[in-house]
UniProtKB/TrEMBL annotation:
Residues 9-165 form the Nitroreductase domain. Gene3D superfamilies: NADH Oxidase (3.40.109.10). GO terms for molecular function: oxidoreductase activity. This is Nitroreductase domain-containing protein. The keyword Oxidoreductase applies. Belongs to the flavin oxidoreductase frp family. The keyword Endoplasmic reticulum does not apply. Keywords: Flavoprotein, FMN, NADP, Oxidoreductase. It comes from the Bacteria. InterPro entries: Flavin_OxRdtase_Frp, Nitroreductase, Nitroreductase-like.
Length: 241
């Protein structure tokens, strides 16, 4: 097995970092370059990355996300944005309509571009012996973050990436059974017993931060109305109607 596949198959999330570790600039630049070289739809590169190393800004982000202290404790925090402002500027310059609020495809394109860039950054950081954790919770504070970081219209947070030197070793977390996720030549039904078995696997894994089974966690999460605040934020950013 080559080293890249080995790295990917041994991914684990780290949340405790050495607060004194300084990320060398050459490593940061290597991570950013890897992110920028990520594939994107039609080479549109509909994303931007904000490098946040200002302690005051990161402490404010933690104040809004107290369950994610790693945002401040890590060496650097990268915020990945879906960015449709750049193509708005192109449309204005070419004097063409900009109809991205007529459907959801532009949002999917920009979110996917940002997510792929984030994953490339995470892999690059791990290849350097660093630890990472992705924070999707930044979306619940989109308007506050937009105000704090001066985000223009047509831009929204997708997720953040904390990067640092881990101080607590983590085990590789079990994933759903292969037959529940991998399909060949069409979607194939599978027994719900696979999910029940996975609940038992995760319970045995015993991650302290997990207080519910996988099934209970997501049954509960999707039983609530999705975040209406984020919907309104997208409207305010002129991304949806």
């Amino acid at each position: 097995m080559n080293e890249t596949i080995k790295l990917l198959q041994n991914h684990r999330t780290y949340r405790q970092f050495d607060t004194d570790h300084q990320l060398p600039n050459e490593q940061l630049q290597a991570i950013l370059q890897a992110a920028r070289q990520a594939p994107s739809w039609m080479n549109g590169q509909a994303y931007s990355i904000i490098v946040i190393d200002d302690p005051t800004i990161r402490e404010q982000l933690v104040a809004w996300n107290p369950g994610n202290p790693h945002i401040a404790a890590s060496s650097v925090f990268l915020l990945f944005l879906a960015d449709l402002q750049r193509t708005k500027q192109v449309a204005d310059r070419k004097d063409t309509p900009y109809l991205i609020d007529e459907g959801y495809q532009p949002l999917l394109i920009a979110t996917t571009d940002a997510s792929i860039a984030l994953q490339s950054a995470s892999i690059a950081a791990e290849s350097l012996g660093l630890g990472t954790v992705i924070s999707g919770s930044v979306r619940k504070d989109s308007q506050k973050i937009a105000d704090l970081l001066h985000l223009p219209d047509y831009v929204y947070p997708v997720a953040g990436l904390s990067i640092g030197k881990p101080i607590v070793e983590m085990k590789v977390k079990p994933r759903l059974p292969e037959t529940a996720v991998i399909h060949y030549n069409g979607y194939q039904p599978y027994s719900t017993e696979l999910i029940t078995a996975y609940d038992k696997t995760m319970t045995a894994f015993g991650e302290a931060r997990e207080t519910k089974t996988w099934s209970d966690k997501f049954a509960g999460f999707y039983s609530h109305t999705p975040d209406q605040g984020f919907d309104q934020f997208l409207k305010d950013q002129h991304l949806t109607k």
